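User: Good morning. I'm curious how hypoxanthine would be positioned relative to this chain. Could you predict the structure with it bound?
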Amino acid sequence: MPLPKAELHLHIEGTLEPELAFALAARNGVELPYADTEELRKAYQFSDLQSFLDLYYELMAVLRTEQDFEELADAYLERAAAQGVRHAEIFFDPQAHIARGVGIGTVIQGLARALDRSEEQHGVSTQLIMCFLRDQSAESAMETLEAAKPYLDRIVGVGLDSAEVGHPPVKFREVYEAAAALGLRRVAHAGEEGPPAYIWEALDVLGVERVDHGLRAMEDPELVERLVRERVPLTLCPLSNVRLRAVDVLEQHPLARMLAAGLLCTVNSDDPAYFGGYVGDNFHAVRDALGLELEQMRTLARNSFEAAFLEHDEERRGRYLAEVEAYEFGAG
Ligand code: HPA
Ligand SMILES: [Zn+2]
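Assistant: Good morning! Here's the predicted structure, ligand included:
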């Protein structure tokens, strides 16, 4: 039995496995520029974030109907459950779909079909976080927030993703103010490739409650001190960092130093179909590469539930935390 955990940094479009991509391409009459799944997998060699994003956006062409989004989410939830995920806060990128003529309602309602039966079917509770593409304009982000208004009961918060460098958080100040006024929680990718200054800005200008990645926080001791003092969660994605060359090898990942510094770190999979593993695989990889003790693994699991947006259901958070405390490593 795997360690119970929450996944808080997961792009649903990044769970599109090559087999499902080809099945959906065939069903929707979409031509993919790869002969088969093997040739597609060979393209999964990335030099940085942008080289990944190019493929990530290209493959999305196969996602067209509610059923496609439902099957995508269902496949993720099944895999996540098998790796101990009890609660998932799932990112989606509406602008990437709207640009292809797929409406935000199709995306949200399709995902919702899978999410609505997830607890019963997979034992995984879920929430959705709508991300804005930071390499598109602030106006486009604001239009997207407007388009999401009929579906706000399905969305717990907003996030910020895509190409980071050159697109500082401050660009989205007004959008985040509008999101906060609608009662939405706020997170943002910061410090994946971008500098620590982007993490400060995400906190101070956007008012984020969690930082997605935050990998480069360790370059700035004052920032670390603040993140520790305010217990701001960081959603780290170790296998992603290696695949996108943010760190050279997993053995050099700062996670162990970040935990030792007192940061509220969580471990997540980001885009598991592309980066070689789901969240349990990330847990095992850091344990092995960094020599984490079992108590540190338990801390990571505990942190994930502490950092989850479960304030509306503290009873549930308490149940999940109790599962972590009761977990016996090596049993079963
Ligand atoms: O890791 C990521 N970083 C930024 N944007 C993204 N969109 C999907 N995955 C990512
Ligand atoms: Zn991400």
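The pocket of zinc ion (ligand 2) is lined by residues 9, 11, 161, 189, 212, 270 (CB under 6 Å). The mean pLDDT is 98.
Let me know if you'd like a different ligand tried.
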